[in-house]
Amino acid sequence: MKHTKSLLFFIKNQRIYLISFFVSTLFILGIIWLDGYRNSWLLVYAVVLNIIMSLVFLLVTFYRQRSLYRVLQNERKKVPFEVIQEDESRLSKQVFKQMNQQYTNYHEEISIHKDSLADHQTFMYQWVHQMKTPIAVLELMAEGNHLEKNSVLEETDRLKEGLDLALNMARLESFNQDFVINQVDLKKVVTKVINEQKRNLIRHQIYPKITINEDLKIESDEKWLSFCLTQILLNSVKYTELEETRLFIEVEETRDVINLTVTDFGMGITQEDLPKIFQPFFTGKRGRKSREATGMGLYLVKKALDKLDHDITITSVVGEGTVVKISFDK
């Protein structure tokens, strides 16, 4: 029979009820007998009637929950859990609702992981392709015995930037285990980032001007904030024309917010590209002109700042420059 296995499973599941029923029946009969009542036929009739009523109750309960027990008894691949909604039982409907929600959540998580894996694979493909360029340049210089110090350092800097980007993309996957919110000296962090990029800045003849009060503290993670500022600085340098030397890093304070702005005077971003700059792998019109563009820098910056609960906005005018603003709550 179609429901034989599920019926047996239902009976097993009701064994505590059945045992309690028989024990309580015997207990009641014993009390009645000890009380002096000796009409055995009436007692038998009462017991049989009680058994019939209990069996009817169990059968009705099973019938109303039959699909639920089919799912519980059989393997998932044999009986889809959607059949539970055919039951009339409130318990079955609640179980179906919970299972359906878990099933939906599971598929959403799988979809997120698939998208993340696809992004990771695409990034790695682009990253490996990007890393080939400085390696090829170094090989050419080595073969021609033209290993000039500045040229070698420029190519190794590109390798380092690519490695740092790949490392931080991997670290973002486990962000919750890799950040600590502390009081951070904002000027100290900005100065440290600029010093780390000093060689790159000098190479492009860009001289940043910092306007930040001493000992200005914000609530953030220093390591991730440094990564975000580094990516913003690299973008500013990468897309600034050779004759332009200005780069302003300033702080504006309001009653509730501290705004850190990085202003460059480079080629700027088109209004068409501006809404898409935080999308993964988006390089835009200016990015297509650069062999180093991966379209992942600002995407990772946005993800990291979102996790740190900091806001970032970017405004730009083509031919005039770009302003990046990071806002910290006081």
Automatic annotation (TrEMBL):
<dbReference type="GO" id="GO:0000155">
    <property type="term" value="F:phosphorelay sensor kinase activity"/>
</dbReference>
<dbReference type="Pfam" id="PF02518">
    <property type="entry name" value="HATPase_c"/>
</dbReference>
<keyword id="KW-0808">Transferase</keyword>
<dbReference type="GO" id="GO:0005886">
    <property type="term" value="C:plasma membrane"/>
</dbReference>
<dbReference type="InterPro" id="IPR050351">
    <property type="entry name" value="BphY/WalK/GraS-like"/>
</dbReference>
<keyword id="KW-0418">Kinase</keyword>
<keyword id="KW-0812">Transmembrane</keyword>
<dbReference type="InterPro" id="IPR004358">
    <property type="entry name" value="Sig_transdc_His_kin-like_C"/>
</dbReference>
<dbReference type="InterPro" id="IPR005467">
    <property type="entry name" value="His_kinase_dom"/>
</dbReference>
<feature type="domain" description="Histidine kinase">
    <location>
        <begin position="126"/>
        <end position="330"/>
    </location>
</feature>
<protein>
    <recommendedName>
        <fullName>histidine kinase</fullName>
        <ecNumber>2.7.13.3</ecNumber>
    </recommendedName>
</protein>
<dbReference type="InterPro" id="IPR036890">
    <property type="entry name" value="HATPase_C_sf"/>
</dbReference>
<feature type="transmembrane region" description="Helical">
    <location>
        <begin position="16"/>
        <end position="34"/>
    </location>
</feature>
<keyword id="KW-0472">Membrane</keyword>
<dbReference type="GO" id="GO:0004721">
    <property type="term" value="F:phosphoprotein phosphatase activity"/>
</dbReference>
<keyword id="KW-1003">Cell membrane</keyword>
<keyword id="KW-0902">Two-component regulatory system</keyword>
<dbReference type="InterPro" id="IPR003594">
    <property type="entry name" value="HATPase_dom"/>
</dbReference>
<dbReference type="GO" id="GO:0016036">
    <property type="term" value="P:cellular response to phosphate starvation"/>
</dbReference>
<feature type="transmembrane region" description="Helical">
    <location>
        <begin position="40"/>
        <end position="63"/>
    </location>
</feature>
<keyword id="KW-1133">Transmembrane helix</keyword>
